[in-house]
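During the second year of the project, the team shifted from modelling isolated chains to modelling whole assemblies. The rationale, set out in the original proposal, was that interfaces cannot be judged from single-chain predictions alone. As a representative example for this report, we include one of the complexes processed in the last quarter. Its constituent sequences, exactly as entered into the pipeline, are reproduced here:
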Amino acid sequence: MTRYRHRLWVATVLLLLLSACERAPSPWNLHDISGLMPPLAFTLHDGLGQERQAKEFHGDVVLLYFGYTHCPDICPTTLANLVSATRELGEAADRTRILFVSVDPARDTAAVLQRYGQAFGPRVTALSGTASQLRALSRRYRVSYGYGKPDDAGRYEVSHSSGVFVFDRDGAARLLSTGADSAAAISADLKHLMGG
Amino acid sequence: MPGRRLIAATLLLIVCTGAAAAEVSARHAWIRLLPGNLPAAGYLELINSGAESVRLVGGQSPRFGGVELHVSSDPSGVARMQRVTSLNIAGGKTVVLKPRGYHLMLFQPADDLKPGGRAPVTLEFSDGSHLVVDFLLRDATGQ
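Output from the structure prediction step:
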């Protein structure tokens, strides 16, 4: 009996030691990419055809997403989810910015970008760039995109990275959402990132 | 006899428009409208109350230039969208067309479509039947 108790005690201690060896649980719902990706930097243009630099958005938490407007399902679903995540922050939503970067500049003219961004509300800014500006940005964050073969009507699909990169107010890359994260999960991380 | 003519015309109309889909019903049908003439996506649940499986093979709408069946996928973090020719609905089963999965891709929306409004889409099935579904129109954010 005593020996049995002794064994139980040893097992308990071992279990406690093992659990202490495990990594502390991540405080984030999204993937922590701190130190793995370079800070936010780009030169693109907005829906008014004005050149926009990443540094203009410093001071806000930035959510960066790549897509194209002739994408009726995944792109608007993702943007709507990000909008609802920022709305859950209440007043702090004003210090967030969702940047939608179209990788389909052939169809996404400034006028199309302008109306598209507005359709998602004031937190969303739709941007695009020249082929070389987009290449530079996609290489920086190791994202890919490609164009399918046009059909008889000249329509083509664009494959694009589905991740959403989150940058803190200083422009440092901090989190990556893989697309399936709920608005509540994203919102909780944004709040944490803003020190709330 | 104008009455007979009317009956004949009605019969002809029924024959020409094909059989209505008695076994398949729809619910929670909605469309996400995007600004301008950008293509929209349609979502709904299709319930096959019959014993036989049936395939959704296409659609058309007086309010859109074209209707296609598409599926989105996200293998290894890259979003893709592909046209598919049909979607099977097994007997007694429900198939859900929802964001990030199967959806209707609706091209060239009519200029006067507005969130809060409605638009009919006629769905076509492999057995030659069809189903007219009234879709609720929502804005880009799905509201």
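Strands of chain A lie at 31-32, 43-45, 51-53, 61-67, 96-102, 124-127, 145-147, 158-161, 164-167, 173-177. Chain A touches chain B at residues 67, 69-77, 79-80, 83-84, 112, 115-116, 118-121, 144, 155, 157, 159-163, 178-180 (CB under 8 Å).
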